[in-house]
Amino acid sequence: MASYTVPQGLRLFMASTGVSAWGPMLAMSLLSLVPLIVLFLVFQRRLIEGIATTGLK
User: Fold this and answer.
1) Which of 7, 11, 15, 2 shows the shortest CA–CA distance to 32?
2) Are residues 12 and 4 in contact, defined by beta-carbon separation less than 8 angstroms?
3) Dist CA 55 CA 41 (whole Å)
4) Global pTM value
5) CA-based nearest residue to 8, from 22, 25, 21
6) Is residue 14 within 8 Å of residue 25, measured between CB atoms?
7) Cβ pair 31, 25 in contact under 8 A
8) CA 57/CA 55 separation, integer angstroms
9) Which of 1, 5, 9, 17 is most buried (most C-beta within 10 Å)?
10) CA 15 to the chain's CA centroid
11) Per-residue model confidence (pLDDT) at position 57
12) What HEC string does the chain produce?
């Protein structure tokens, strides 16, 4: 089985004729965003604290 990056994998769902598989393409893009959303939710407090303390002198 061939391995692709996310943009290349999403491109496989686009047809050159203009007919695209929108359902699977949207599902794959949602699945590719889930790890980023989870990381943001886990480290949200540290990110906000870092931004807040950057402006203090």
Assistant:
1) 7
2) yes
3) 23
4) 0.61
5) 25
6) yes
7) no
8) 7
9) 9
10) 22
11) 61
12) CCCCCHHHHHHCCCCCCCCCCHHHHHHHHHHHHHHHHHHHHHHHHHHHHHHHHHCCC
Place of tokens 């943009």: 7
Q: Rounded to an integer, what distance in angstroms lies between the CA atom of residue 51 and that of residue 20?
A: 41
Q: Which residue has tokens 């931004």?
A: 51
Residue type, 52: A
Q: If you search the block for the tokens 């929108």, which residue do you land on?
A: 22
Encoded tokens for 52: 């807040």
* Residue 3, token pair as written in the block: 């391995």
AA identity, residue 40: F
> For residues 42 and 38, what is the distance between their CA atoms, to the nearest angstrom?
6
Tokens read off for 46: 């540290």
